[in-house]
């Protein structure tokens, strides 16, 4: 046994990965084994693509019949797909069998127990390395190669554990479950290897930058001569640069949010949709619907249906979901760039694309992208394009988007589907902007049957999980009937009523609520805000202000840090950090929601944002005044950045004295940025320890400080503050006397990022001049 262990430890990681896959296959049933071998052979014959990932997750959701789980698996499946697809580049032909083996393994393992396991795979995917970056660097680093294999060894072992669990009898499963300790171990190991890969990639990219400093960027980026003579790794690098030029926004994030919101099949039965999907010539389909009726959910489901429809065919699907709370999605540059990137990503030989990229360097970005497509796509190439939320864009950005969509239609056989809110001026808007498309306009299908099913399923889940507690077993039926009657076709209204009912503690309270349901969304928002903040906590207004004006969704930790800042006070006091941000979010009553995968915060719907900034609670008190909210954010950002600079300077000069561990432990716990769970565990260990803490911590702290300057250790709100300070200040000028001195010091010390888009800079300068903000104007002029 000792000899076997010693031998195993000396084996290369790629060999151990192959062994892990073989052991997994050996435990499969005959039917599963045949499926695995068939999938692996298929992957070797035709390398898996992003289309395969989309089709697989769409199929999972089609057959699951319950909650939408496929999007949770997308990241980990994409990671494995990228590994398999560039396997011949990364590791050569023979080892590509291993890469395709991992891909086949995921296909085999992800079909059962998805409800519980989807969360686990979602967490695995959250830390997954980005293999498009690795492809260009892989051959240069044996350490990187080994780390990639180690990462997948853990993934395979996780799948093997899942397989063993699924093979148990029902009685055995009842008495045992996938060990929490094992799952924690897998999460920890996967996260560790992912960070190791990221560190190595960061190091290699820095080295590559130095080595290529003398080379011209145009030649390195994309010249056709370079492409014909370059190595596979160099081609992969140049290819990724062109795709990044088109768009770097992750278009999957808003789609996944919409897809997770629910399932719908009604559009599949509509003749106009069937006709649009099957037409051989270009066509445009437009869906309209009132606020909260489920347009985004319908189009998100349509994307899945189109991926299933195009699987195995020479057809493409591209999509984009614009979102009111992600400013980057509200520009034609991002919308068109994302669509072009998706269409180019399916192209394997980038030689012609690289040539077109070089020849069009003087053109505007959007025109340049169209030339890239023209260089590789046939005029008869068929593509389906789905865009949701186009009416969230400003008039000018929306018009530019439509203009370039029409240009796309001249390049290929384009079937386009758009959605618009049903408003008094919708018909005029569609007639003016979409007349060249000869579009067919339809209201979204009548959804009363699906709303009833949605209510039944949601109530069942809430009762089962005890989020909705009742005494009378007939009460859920009363709730269902009342919600169906009052819904008026609005899924959002229904979801908010169910969320509100879950906060009630007696059957009488629930019955009173369903007998007096709000008539519309505005009344719903008002009631929820009042009932969720009976203690008049100031955090409700502060949270709503910051989340409303944020230029991109804030993470929970970013919001936690921002809320701890008192404008003008530059002495950092960690005791002001919220101990439980989730508790504070309850003051918003479910109207601020958490994305389970991205861990970012969002207003529940764009209609709630409109309610906040337009409706008033009293004669003068608007719920969120945009000027005041931006001023609050500006004051927080300036104070925060100034505080960080003071703290940095103080710590670089710090002399670490002899410190008694016991007397300083409380301060350390208070000042740490670790999670509350970690602090609680440490507190319990200290309470249970009987030995005195006799330890000189000065030397330990000095050593620890030297290890803190790592990317993941940076202050959590700093990236947001540095990126968006100018946009918030443009709303807030002139700055208050409270923070103006702090801003002046930041200017003097060059502590503000000057990477600002020209349009934003012009708006900022005009606002500074118009408000006679002399110091601000001088700063912009000098820099």
From TrEMBL:
Keyword Cell inner membrane assigned: no
Domain NACHT: 283-421
Keywords: Repeat
Short name of any one Pfam family annotated for the protein: NPHP3_N
Signal peptide: none
PANTHER family referenced in this protein's UniProt entry, alphabetically: AMELOGENIN (PTHR10039), NACHT DOMAIN-CONTAINING PROTEIN (PTHR10039:SF10)
Record protein name field: NACHT domain-containing protein
Origin species: Penicillium cataractarum
């Amino acid at each position: 046994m000792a000899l076997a262990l010693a031998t195993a430890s000396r084996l290369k990681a790629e060999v151990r990965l192959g062994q892990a896959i073989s052991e997994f296959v050996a435990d499969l049933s005959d039917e599963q084994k045949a499926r695995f071998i068939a999938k692996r052979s298929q992957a070797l014959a035709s390398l898996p693509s992003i289309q395969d990932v989309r089709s697989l997750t769409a199929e999972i959701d089609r057959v699951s019949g319950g909650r939408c789980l496929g999007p949770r698996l997308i990241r980990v499946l994409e990671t494995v797909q990228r590994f398999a697809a560039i396997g011949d580049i990364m590791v050569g032909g023979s080892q590509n069998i291993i890469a395709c083996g991992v891909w086949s393994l995921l296909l085999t393992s992800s079909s059962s127990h998805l409800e519980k396991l989807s969360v686990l795979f979602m967490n695995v995917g959250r830390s997954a390395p980005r293999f498009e970056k690795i492809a260009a660097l892989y051959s240069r680093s044996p350490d990187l190669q080994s780390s990639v294999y180690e990462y997948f060894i853990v993934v395979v072992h996780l799948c093997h554990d899942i397989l063993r669990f699924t093979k148990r009898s029902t009685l055995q499963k009842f008495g045992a479950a996938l060990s929490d300790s094992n799952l924690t171990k897998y999460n920890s190991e996967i996260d560790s290897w992912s960070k190791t890969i990221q560190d190595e990639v960061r190091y290699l990219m820095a080295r590559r930058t130095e080595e290529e400093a003398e080379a011209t960027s145009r030649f390195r980026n994309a010249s056709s001569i370079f492409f014909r003579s370059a190595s596979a790794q160099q081609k992969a690098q140049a290819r990724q640069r062109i795709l990044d030029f088109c768009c770097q926004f992750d278009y999957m994030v808003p789609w996944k949010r919409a897809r997770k919101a629910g399932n719908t099949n009604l559009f599949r039965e509509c003749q106009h949709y069937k006709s649009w999907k099957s037409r051989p010539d270009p066509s445009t389909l437009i869906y309209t619907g009132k606020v909260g009726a489920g347009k985004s959910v319908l189009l998100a489901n349509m994307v899945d249906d189109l991926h299933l429809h195009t699987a195995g065919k020479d057809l493409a699907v591209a999509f984009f979901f614009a979102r009111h709370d992600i400013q980057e999605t509200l520009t034609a540059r991002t919308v068109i760039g994302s669509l072009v990137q998706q269409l180019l990503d399916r192209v394997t030989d980038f030689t012609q694309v690289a040539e077109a990229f070089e020849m069009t360097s003087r053109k505007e970005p959007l025109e340049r992208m169209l030339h890239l497509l023209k260089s590789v796509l046939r005029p008869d190439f068929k593509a389906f394009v789905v865009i949701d939320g186009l009416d969230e864009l400003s008039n000018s950005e929306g018009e530019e988007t439509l203009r370039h969509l029409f240009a796309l239609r001249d390049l290929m056989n384009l079937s386009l589907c758009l959605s618009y809110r049903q408003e008094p001026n919708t018909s005029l808007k569609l007639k003016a902007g979409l007349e060249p498309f000869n579009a067919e306009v339809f209201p979204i299908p009548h959804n009363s049957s699906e709303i009833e099913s949605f209510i039944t399923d949601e109530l069942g889940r809430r009762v089962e999980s005890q989020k909705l507690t009742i005494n009378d077993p007939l009460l859920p039926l009363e709730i269902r009937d009342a919600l169906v009657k009052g819904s008026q076709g609005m899924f959002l209204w229904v979801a908010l009523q169910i969320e509100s009912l879950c906060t009630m503690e007696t059957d009488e309270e629930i019955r009173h609520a369903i007998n007096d349901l709000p008539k519309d969304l505005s009344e719903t928002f008002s009631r929820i805000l009042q009932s969720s903040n009976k203690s008049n906590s100031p955090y409700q207004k502060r949270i709503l202000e910051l989340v409303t004006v944020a230029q991109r969704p804030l993470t929970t930790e970013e919001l936690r840090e921002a809320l701890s800042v008192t404008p003008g006070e530059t002495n950092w006091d960690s005791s002001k950090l919220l101990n439980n941000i989730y508790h504070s979010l309850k003051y918003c009553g479910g109207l601020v929601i958490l994305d389970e995968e991205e861990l970012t915060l969002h207003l529940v719907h764009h209609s709630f944002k409109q309610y906040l900034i337009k409706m008033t609670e009293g004669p003068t008190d608007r719920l969120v005044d945009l000027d005041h909210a931006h001023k609050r954010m500006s004051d927080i950002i300036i104070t925060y950045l100034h505080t960080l600079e003071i703290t940095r300077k103080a710590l670089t000069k710090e002399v670490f004295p002899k410190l008694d561990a016991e007397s300083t432990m409380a301060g350390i716990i208070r000042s740490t940025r670790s999670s509350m769970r970690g602090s609680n565990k440490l507190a319990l260990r200290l309470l249970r320890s009987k030995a005195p803490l006799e330890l000189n911590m000065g030397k330990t702290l000095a050593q620890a400080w030297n290890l803190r300057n790592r990317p993941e250790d940076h202050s959590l709100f700093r990236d947001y503050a540095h990126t968006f300070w100018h946009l918030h200040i443009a709303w807030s000028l002139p700055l208050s006397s409270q923070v103006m001195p702090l801003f002046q010091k930041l200017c003097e010390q060059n502590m503000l990022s000057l990477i600002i888009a020209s349009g934003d800079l012009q708006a900022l300068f005009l606002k500074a001049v118009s408000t006679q903000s002399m110091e601000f104007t001088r700063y912009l002029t000098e820099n």
